[in-house]
Amino acid sequence: MKARTKIRLHRTVLFVLLCFAGCTTRTPAPADTPKPHTIRYLALGDSYTIGQGVEPEERWPVQLVGLLEQQGTVTEELVLIAQTGWTTDDLDRGIDFEKPQGTFDLVSLLIGVNNQYQGRDIEAYRDEFRNLLARAVGYAGESPGRVVVLSIPDWGATPFAAGQDSQRIGAEIDQFNAVNRDETERAQARYVDVTAVSRQAAQDRQLIARDGLHPSAKMYLAWANLALPEVQAALAEGSP
User: Fold this and answer.
1) What is the CATH number of the domain that holds 66?
2) How high is the pLDDT of residue 5?
3) Is residue 50 part of a domain?
4) Residue 217 lies in a domain
5) Which one, of 161, 149, 225, lies nearest residue 190 by Cα?
6) pLDDT tens readout for residues 56-87
7) Residues 142, 145, 147, CA angle at the centre, nearest 5°?
8) How many domains does the chain have?
9) For the chain, is the Cβ count within 10 Å smaller at the N or the C terminus?
10) 119 lies in which domain range?
């Protein structure tokens, strides 16, 4: 099972001292540079998290990392456990297989579109999503405020859904999102609605990747910007 992607970012500051023979003045030592705030980030999901259809640097969690760095927060380690086609039970097994170690400063969770696509029972989704959310909270040091859940995007707005009942798809996506929002609020985790922007793809094809189904880098950036305020609030809670 190839599900996990680990990205480590190392920042090295090089101080170069130039000495010239016969120099009568000394170059003052550089001022101490404040150490950046570093975090570990675990992203759980399916094709939307692994970034099917886009380059690795265009995935929404990676673009989120870039936005955080602009604010002075460096992601030392980003671990993605996700795979195209995964349902809630697939993700649960994927976590078991990968066994991520330690506590993470931030955990994101986006799962459920394949449950809807496969016509799975919505109450079974509730139970499985609740379990995944509890696992996410555990990886966040039992701090639910450090877990950010994203809503399921509406694939009915994509070219892939042409000839299908897009209204029915959208209505079912809304039902699944009502469940994951309810469970997120019960757990006191954080919730980000990306469904509305996903529906803009019906008018703006630049929001869709070449495969006609998955988001483009442009849409993933929109998701990252939507998530940023909740992520910043999560990280402001202090170390787990």
Assistant:
1) 3.40.50.1110
2) 56
3) yes
4) yes
5) 149
6) 999 999 999 999 999 999 999 999 999 999 99
7) 80
8) 1
9) N
10) 4-8+36-234
User: Rounded CA gap, 77 and 7, in Å?
Assistant: 6
Give pLDDT tens digits for 14-36.
222 223 333 334 444 455 556 67
Task: Tell me which amino acid residue 76 is.
Answer: E
Is residue 136 within 8 A of residue 184, CB to CB? The reply is no
Q: Helix or strand or coil: residue 20?
A: coil
* Contact indicator for 52, 214 with CB cutoff of 8 Å: yes
Q: Quick one: residue 151, left, alpha or beta (phi over 0 = left, psi -120 to 50 = alpha)?
A: beta
CB 145 within 8 A of CB 189: yes
User: Quick one: DSSP state of residue 19?
Assistant: -
Number of Cβ within 10 Å of residue 147's Cβ equals: 29
Residue 52 domain flag: yes
Q: In the numeric block, which tokens belong to residue 56? A: 């690795």
Nearest to 132 by CA among 173, 88, 102: 88
Do the Cβ atoms of 195 and 173 come closer than 8 Å? Answer: yes
191 falls within a domain: yes
Residue with tokens 């006609």: 212
Residues in the chain, pLDDT under 50: 1-2, 8-29, 240
